[in-house]
Amino acid sequence: MESGKNRSAVALLSGGMDSATAAAIAKHEGWMLHVLAVDYGQRARAELESARRIADALEVESFRTVGVDLRALGGSALTDDIDVPKGRSAQAIGEGIPVTYVPARNTVFLALALAAAETADARGIVLGVNALDYSGYPDCRPDFLKAFSRVAATGTKQGVEGNPVKILAPLIEMTKGDIVRRGLELGVPFEHTLSCYDPVEKDGAWLHCGRCDACSLRRKGFLEADAEDPAPRAS
Amino acid sequence: MESGKNRSAVALLSGGMDSATAAAIAKHEGWMLHVLAVDYGQRARAELESARRIADALEVESFRTVGVDLRALGGSALTDDIDVPKGRSAQAIGEGIPVTYVPARNTVFLALALAAAETADARGIVLGVNALDYSGYPDCRPDFLKAFSRVAATGTKQGVEGNPVKILAPLIEMTKGDIVRRGLELGVPFEHTLSCYDPVEKDGAWLHCGRCDACSLRRKGFLEADAEDPAPRAS
Questions:
Q1: Residue A67 φ/ψ region, left for φ over 0, alpha for ψ in the -120 to 50 degree band, beta for the rest
Q2: What is the mean pLDDT of chain A?
Q3: Per-residue pLDDT tens for B117-152?
């Protein structure tokens, strides 16, 4: 971790449990967090509300949203009118690339975080990607993060001047159970996290559907951690 | 160059002369172009109109714009209310990183083009970066493009499946004079290109200011090519 005067990092918060736990870990390690939430035209706009609540609970330095219209590019069940798959086992989820994959999403998010980091002279970017109990998305793997680190080192003023932004992915080697355990230790407000691909609105609150891939992985995490999920669920 | 059935490429058009010439070269080499113009909240919104006219003249397969609010991230004379420098020599322009640099702009643009390419199963991304007579921006250099190619190879479905998108930067080793000469040979509609950082509106048309860094480099290109710039200029 950086020491000295510059310990600012841009933390990408999606509203889900992984990015919230990643941000909490980075904060625990001494980083001052500037949250960036990306409004990419997602079906689940509730995610942005969740990101805001999580940022408040983590007492971050700043919070901002940036809009990018990924719907204009199309191609995913998370931005378009494509059915989200339901009832798949956690094992089946890791096989192949699912329809919920948003093309190049993490590349776009990291690019925006890099722009924010460069503007604010922050030295880190925190994101909640995880390569173990993962969704089968190609942009959640260590090779990808390593490649993006080179982009940050070569394509920015800071990088050229010898202060490249570090890509911090503290969950990369953790299981979902590890993530829940560590999150609970650090006081992550899991009740405010929304990781569902297809949440249901009820009486003004958002409920997890309980049956999409993200809900299956979440359930697995809480089971492994022997803890109860405080977030409301429809089924 | 790719041969066989898939010769589609996403071409980033900024409205300027470099990206227009890069697209014309790629088309001449047999690529079918799908244009992506990024609306990043630039001061010079006229750039998008220029991109549209250039795309029409090049008879591309498709044209779309995608919005991303880089103003929300701030930090450049091209998106914020910072004065654009005027009257600098072409030699002085390459020294240091100027205030017109938009943080991580090419990273953001390439990320969006990658998302578009992945959605459309295109195999190339064309952009007009140039490392010789260049603006001093770090994200215009070969090292950066190489790093981004690794991002495309590791972070996308196509890349993982062995069909990574190629980053095509045909101008990378060309002087401004070379670019103008090649563009004229290929019929690039230079009269529709707008490369100025601070264009002036007059009688419904946009004029180049003639004094910003981009105008100085443009003038140098036409001088070297011994050709007359058909685009209107205020001074």
A1: beta
A2: 86
A3: 988 889 999 999 987 766 667 888 899 999 999 999
Q: Measuring CA to CA, how many Å separate B149 from each of A61, A107, B107?
A: 34, 12, 11
Among A43, A44, A55, A45, CA closest to A19: A55
Q: What is the pLDDT of residue A154?
A: 94
Q: How far apart are CA A223 and CA A179, in angstroms?
A: 12
Interatomic CA distance for residues A137 and A167, integer angstroms: 18
Write out chain B residues lying below 8 Å of A80, CB-based. none
Q: Which residue has the tokens 């390419």?
A: B117
B60 in reach of chain A (CB within 8 A):
no
- Tokens in use for A137? 């998305």
Q: Judge contact between B8 and B124, C-beta under 8 A.
A: yes
Q: Where residue B114 falls among pLDDT bands split at 50, 70, 90? A: very high
3-state SS assignment for residue B168:
strand
Task: Put residue B126 in one of left, alpha, beta given phi > 0 → left and psi -120 to 50 → alpha.
Answer: beta
Residues A198 and A44 sit within 8 Å (Cβ to Cβ): yes
**CA torsion, ordered B150, A90, A51, A37, to nearest 10 deg:** 20
Measure the CA–CA gap between A105 and A127, rounded to whole angstroms.
Answer: 12
Rounded to the nearest angstrom, the minimum Cα separation between B186 and chain A is 29
Fold of the domain built from segment(s) A8-224: Rossmann fold (3.40.50)
Is the per-residue pLDDT at B193 higher than 70? yes
The minimum CA-CA distance between B106 and chain A, rounded to whole Å, is 8
Q: Which of A86-90, A224-228, B197-201 has the highest mean pLDDT?
A: A224-228
Take residue A115 and report the two structure tokens written for it. Answer: 């722009």
Which residues numbered 94-113 in B keep a CB inside 8 Å of some CB on A?
A: 97, 101-108, 110-112
Q: Structure tokens of B100?
A: 């017109």
Residues B70 and B105 sit within 8 Å (Cβ to Cβ): yes
Q: How far apart are CA B85 and CA B93, in angstroms?
A: 10
The pair of three-digit structure tokens given for residue A221, joined into one six-digit string: 């995490």
Q: Name residue, tokens 């220029």.
A: B50
Q: Count CA atoms within 13 Å of residue B45 on its CB side.
A: 2
Question: Exposed/middle/buried for A95, CB within 10 Å: 0-12, 13-18, 19+?
Answer: exposed
Decide if B222 contacts B231 (C-beta within 8 A). no
Residue (of A22, A24, A35, A32) closest to A2 by Cα position = A32
Rounded (5°) CA angle A86-A88-A92: 145
DSSP calls for B36-60: EEEE---S-THHHHHHHHHHHHTT-
Q: Helices marked H in B58-197 — which ranges?
A: 90-93, 105-120, 142-155, 157-160, 176-185
